[in-house]
Structures are given as C-alpha cells and as structure tokens.
Amino acid sequence: MYPQTQKIISQKQAQGIFPGAVYAFIEPEQEQALMDLEENQNPLLAKNRKFTQEIHVLGQARIVPESYPMEEDFLFDVASLTKVVCTTSLVLRLIEDGKIDLDAPLKNYLLAFQDERITIRHLLTHTSDIQTWIPDRDKLSQSELKAAYLTLKSGDQLGQQVKYTDAGTILLGFMLEELYWDDATDIFQEEVLNPLGMMHSLFSPHPSKRIVPTEQLASGEVLHGVTHDPKARVLAEHAGNAGLFTTIGDLIKFVTMYLRLGSLPEGQFLREETIKELLRDQTPTGEGQRSLGWDLKVDLSEGRPLLFHTGYTGTFILIDILEGSGFIFLSNRVHPTDHREEYIQVRDEILKIYLTEKAQKKK
Q1: How far is CA 240 from CA 64, 176, 359, in A?
Q2: 87-to-175, 185, 202 alpha-carbon distances in Å
C-alpha cells in the first residue's frame, strides 16, 4: 500500500529525521470496497465493514546510549494522542449519556475552576483563548501546578479563534476526576483502554527495553518509560493531555472502532451519530476547522473531512471515516534531541504524499 509514502518515510529515516518508526495503513477489504462501489453504498451505513492493515517497521528504537532496532510491538510515548484516545473519548461518552452538556461552563462540573465563561466545547475545540502563562511553572509541585491551572482565565477572543493548548485537556482531566472520584489515568484505563481491548497500553510503565525512549535531557538522562511532556510528567496520574504509552496494534484497534462507527465486537463504544458529528466543524463560529478533540483535514479527491491529530514526540493519526481508511504513524523523532521545525516540515510532506496517493487511487 502507498509505495510513495513508504518511500518518503524510509528516505527521511535514513536522513536522520527520526531514528525509527512503526506505521500502519488501514483500508477496507477490496471485496467490501467493490461491493460498496457497486451498490453505491455510503460507508457510513456499513457498520460491519471488514478492514485490512499493513504495518511497517524501520530503523532504530534507541541510538543513545546504545543502539537497538525497532520492533512492531514496542511501546511509544504518544504524547498528545492521549488527548483523542483517552480524554476526548471519555468526554464524548459522557455527552452521549447526558451527564455533561457540551455548551455548559466547565465550572458546572469542576467547581474549583474560577472562569465561568469557558465551556466544554471551547476546551475541546481549542477556542477557549485561555491565558496559559503560569509563573515558574516548571518549578511547581504537582499540587501547586494543578492549583495554578484552576485559576487560568479566558481572553477577549473566547470562542472566536483556534489556539491549540494543552490546558483544555488538562482541565477536562480534572473534571473527569471530579465526576468519577478517581485518578485520571485509572479512569482512562478502566473506561477507555480496557473496553477497546487496548491491553498493551498503559500509563507510567515499568522500565523495559520494549519502550521506545524519547529525549536526552541536559543532565544526560534519556527519558525511557517516563512521560516526555513536562506538564504531564509533573501531573502524573492527574494528566489528561499526555502520558499514554501504546503500540501500533492497540492504536489500530482504536482507529478501527472509529471506522466501524463506534462499534466493537462486544457492543457500541461511541454512537454512530457521535462519529458523524465529528466530521463537522464544531467551533463556535463554524469556521475554525476543528472538531471535538480532533483537527479537520480535507481529502484531496472529493473534499471529504478527515480526522487528524498529532503527538509532539513524532506521532499522528489520520482517519477517513467516509472511505474507511486510516494512517497511523509512530516515530521517536525527539530521540535523542528535539528538532521540531525540521520534523514538522517532513511530517507535512509525508501527509501530502499520502493524501495524493490516496486521491489517485480513486481515479
């Protein structure tokens, strides 16, 4: 599948943009795709679709202090993919169950939060204009950092512009703890990872060679099984923005749930209507190109909306619900050093080639 995309990924790995990667393409089985085409069937009506997947592994899992090769079942610190896999998933289920209102103020459910204007929608779509500067943030203890987040206020562009921030899912994580009376990471394990069958995924793993390391700190320490994001590292079990360690196989389960319109072999994880609503711009203005938790991209052939999210450590997920396909990319691009701007250019190049190949398949 997608030979040009595979080629550019291999080239960039050889150039040292990232030491190694594990990535997967998910496509509807050919027989199913032909059947849909012949019957002019909207894939959104085909909840029992079957999919095929192709996984690729290349490069090194670690190069400092010693090198060893990447393997398919290695665990990655997926950084902000935690936002969509865990926090967004659970908030969407609470909205479905009527336990929270998308357009209600966060303060209704997190009483200690001081701003009465910021809503759940604002936080999920990054339109809260929340003023995130916290004095001496990196010197604060866990309790001090949590207390500081509860004092943050919105600015004068509330609801008007998209400004990506970790603060939204951090606050939503605190809200979930209030509603469930438990630590955020335990809630995610019980309410999201276990139901989805993501049995290799976890938070705060024990040190293991099967965990892909991330950055080397100024002290010389290489983060290995330790959360890369500094805020989530301090918040630890209370973090809703980052901290998930997972495998390509588990993320395939997550993406396949979306492609099957929220259904699992044992039942329904998200409602079909919820998945459909995610394909619309959910910002207050309707012009921000953000869904609930997800970024919205556009397919090059027919202008279909695609769900997209990245992780700082070198990861992303792209899902085409309408066509029934997905692209999951996991790399260790911050190991041993962080060259963010260079990687972003390469990531966008990979996505462009993938979307071009995807469009050409339709011709």
Answers
A1: 29, 9, 35
A2: 10, 10, 14
Backbone angles phi, psi at 51, to 5 degrees: -130, 155
| Average pLDDT along the chain | 94
Q: With a cut of 50, which residues of the chain have pLDDT below it?
A: 34, 37-40, 44-45
DSSP state of 219: T
Encoding tokens for residue 323? 């066509």
CA distance 148 to 170: 12
- What pLDDT is stored for residue 149 in this prediction? 98
Query: In the chain, where does DSSP find H-type helix?
Result: 3-14, 30-38, 81-82, 89-96, 120-124, 142-149, 167-180, 184-188, 230-235, 248-259, 272-277, 340-361
> Could you identify the residue written with the tokens 């509330």?
158
Return all residues near 196 (Cβ < 8 A) that are at least 6 apart.
Answer: 250, 253, 254, 257, 264, 269
User: What residue ranges define each of the domains in the chain, with the CATH number in brackets?
Assistant: 3-361 (3.40.710.10)
Q: How many beta carbons lie within 10 A of that of residue 243, not counting itself?
A: 29
Beta-bridge partner residues of 60: 69
Cis peptide bond prior to 65, omega within 30° of 0: yes
**C-alpha separations of 24 from 168, 241, 252, 329, 361 in Å:** 29, 24, 8, 7, 17
